[in-house]
Amino acid sequence: MRKIFRQIYVQVLIAIVAGALLGHYFPHAGQSVAPLSTAFIKLVKMVTAPLIFVTIVLGAKEMGGAGALGRIGGKSIILFELTTTIALLIGLWAVNTIQPGAGMNLTPSSIDASVLNGYERSMHASGGVMGFLLGIIPDSAVSAFANADMLQVVLFSTLFAIGLSHAGKTGETAYKFFEGVGSALFGVVRIVMRLAPIGAFGAMAYAVGKFGFGTMNSLLMLLVTVYAATLAYIVLILGGICLMCDVSLWRLLKYIRGEILLVIATVSSEAAFPQLVKKLEALGCPSGVVGIVMPMGYTFNLAGTCVAQVICAVFIAQAFGIQLSVAEQAVLVGISMLTSRGMAGVAGASFICLLATLAAFKHIPIEGAAIVLGVDRFIAEIRATTNMIGNAVATVAVAHWERQRDDVCMRETLGMPPKVATR
């Protein structure tokens, strides 16, 4: 029994339940412990940027330098773009089938749009797609890490890895140094992850204390639509990728259940990044592939964000009685793909993506986003979790396509039966 309670996922699960009970019965006390979650996430973010740098640099070395970096990175981006497009189409199908906003008969004047002011300022400050493209380039290498801008960190890390790969024998000393730095960073991660239950407790207590369980009832059909579409994407698309790559999706999800619970509690996929990297390496994926695919995933994998975004946009249109043609919905999908890139790295990016999409699409009143804001926290849980699961699946898949995955280790770790050799 004592061994069970030592498992991190069991501790996180207990913390989630305890936090929910505190927030429900003592709302003010629940909201007061929010700093516990904030502090934990800040600790994780503190180590994430340098960890991404080290994993990309060492990953490129292990896989053979700049050529492997481009090849694996290219496969990862293609996979992320393809799955994100499919996710958008699944979301579009779900919201048109269920029609969660039908019959609400809202008008712009009936919505208090003042709650959107802060988000709109962030949206305009981001500069849209052009701002995104220019924002990839940091003012300095130090500023990329100081601001924890993952796109900038990935760009600098990639360029540094390419440069170091051409350094020849003189670069070997640098590689040994970064190996030591990597070991030290993962040592920090082990310390920080012991605080995961405390962070999960604070996040759940705050969420339930502030919003209450009843908040979910007000826009229940919207939540049902988002969760149904997202689960369909995970089972059908990610499950299909796993099937093609000879791995069980269910066993993989069970293997990373601790990280899933942590993301659900903290609503931050970054919270699970360091631990997920180590788990995927222990699963049989080479550190080189993990070190390239995972950072790419945390900047380019937006399937969870996009499936929720398109559902919310069409939901608002339905709430206002606006009928969108097939062509208009196709344009909406295209705009969603662009705005999701343009908002990368912005605080509150997922909700700001929705505002940017509505502002660019112009057929749907942007004021309608205010009715979604109340349940955005619950949507964010499945959104962040889906992105994290997608990153894990992509890493396992690319390792398989690169013929670098240790399938014997993977099957043994996941509890899958040994593969029968065929003549």
From TrEMBL:
It is a multi-pass membrane protein. Keywords: Cell membrane, Membrane, Symport, Transmembrane, Transmembrane helix, Transport. GO terms for biological process: L-aspartate transmembrane transport. This is C4-dicarboxylate transporter DctA. Its main location: membrane. InterPro entries: Na-dicarboxylate_symporter (IPR001991), Na:dicarbo_symporter_sf (IPR036458). GO terms for molecular function: fumarate transmembrane transporter activity; malate:proton symporter activity; succinate transmembrane transporter activity. The chain crosses the membrane at residues 7-27, 39-60, 72-95, 150-168, 180-207, 219-245, 302-322, 342-361. It is found in: Cell membrane. The keyword Lipid metabolism does not apply. Responsible for the transport of dicarboxylates such as succinate, fumarate, and malate from the periplasm across the membrane. It comes from the Bacteria. One of its GO terms (cellular component) is plasma membrane.
